[in-house]
Design brief:
The structure holds two protein chains of two kinds.
Chain A: H1 4-15, H2 23-31, H3 35-48, E1 51-58, E2 67-73, H4 80-88, E3 93-98, E4 109-115, H5 118-132, E5 137-145
Antiparallel strand pairs in A: 2-4, 2-5, 3-4
Chain B: H1 5-14, H2 17-28, H3 36-44, H4 48-60, E1 64-71, E2 79-85, H5 92-100, E3 105-111, E4 117-123, H6 126-138, E5 145-148, E6 152-156
Helix pairs in contact in B: 3-4
Chain lengths: 147, 163
């Protein structure tokens, strides 16, 4: 369970670490904590998995990965877990999830594929299709980052 | 906020090798010490001020979204889902502005499909998530929202190696 103070720490960390010589001290002052206490708590969140990673979140589209495709797959439900693991093994796949289907949405596996071009993403999807035997898939390229 | 890709590419090209090394460190090994920028500077052979200036530029031009914790929302007890709607071409800006007005909406992308507006929602409970979705329905022509929470997570990678 998160304490009220934990929630405040999370809120502050989502606003971002200040760009000053002692950023944890500056943040701790706002939270009525000590610098050491705040660093300890962050370490605890990391050890506990609540913070997956501490540091900079980058906008990957700007780092040379110009094409970003969400590739969606219509995989047999009973094999989805097995196939998801194979898809996750591809270096080009950064995220891989199973999600529910809808009447007009038959796809149950989602992979985020980053490439330096659209063609690279298309080739990656072909490779994954060959490796998994899933032939029904679509690439949804993002054209604009709305938020 | 939309960032034109050409600008992104330009910013990427402008990164020198020191920026790239710096980005690798602050993505993967941000030091949890009282003077982290000082420590990073020592590792790179530059001053603390230069570290701070370089990070500030990358934050200002949007290369770095945020400096802080990348949280596992589920472990924090949040409900999250990827959602998609079909918005008419003419109403995309309006629909996007409405969707983005909720703080629980963390990402929003326009994609090439009949379901063209794809966004992620984080909420403290299912009820709060449903509230956001019903507000979206109420204030737009959108009636159908497909809600796609992760049933299984096979991979999440958020680091990008810039070497």
């Amino acid at each position: 369970m998160l304490t009220e103070q934990d929630k405040q720490i999370i809120r502050e960390l989502q606003n971002g670490l200040p760009l000053v010589s002692r950023p944890f001290m500056a943040m701790a002052a706002k939270l009525n904590m000590t610098e050491e206490g705040l660093i300890e708590r962050i370490r605890y969140f990391i050890a506990n998995g609540q913070i997956r990673r501490f540091g900079a979140a980058v906008r990957h589209q700007d780092l040379g990965y110009l094409a970003n495709a969400m590739v969606v797959w219509d995989a047999p439900s009973e094999k989805a877990a097995e196939i998801g693991v194979i898809m996750a093994g591809f270096e080009e796949v950064t995220h891989c999830y199973q999600r529910p289907r809808y009447p007009d949405w038959p796809y149950n596996l989602f992979t985020m594929v980053h490439g330096r071009s659209r063609e690279e993403c298309v080739r990656t999807a072909e490779k994954i299709s060959l490796a998994t035997g899933v032939k029904e898939y679509r690439l949804l390229f993002s054209t604009v980052e709305l938020k | 906020m939309s960032v034109p890709r050409e600008k992104g590419l330009l910013d990427f090209m402008k990164l020198d090798s020191l920026d790239r090394k710096l980005l690798n460190i602050i993505q993967a090994n941000f030091p949890l010490v009282p003077e982290p920028y000082q420590e990073i500077g020592e590792a790179l052979g530059i001053t603390e001020d230069e570290v701070i200036d370089r990070i500030r530029i990358m934050l200002d031009n949007g290369l770095i979204r945020r400096l802080g914790g990348i949280f596992d929302s589920r472990k924090l007890g949040y409900q999250g889902a990827l959602c998609a709607v079909k918005a008419d071409r003419d109403s995309i800006d309006q629909v996007a502005a409405l969707i983005n007005s909720f703080p629980g909406v963390t990402h929003n992308y326009l994609r090439e499909h009949a379901y063209n507006v794809w966004f992620t929602v984080l909420a403290q409970s299912e009820e709060k998530m449903e509230n956001i979705l019903s507000e979206i329905r109420k204030h737009s022509a959108i009636q159908e929202i497909i809600v796609l929470p992760a049933e299984n997570v096979f991979k999440i990678r958020v680091n990008f190696d810039l070497q």
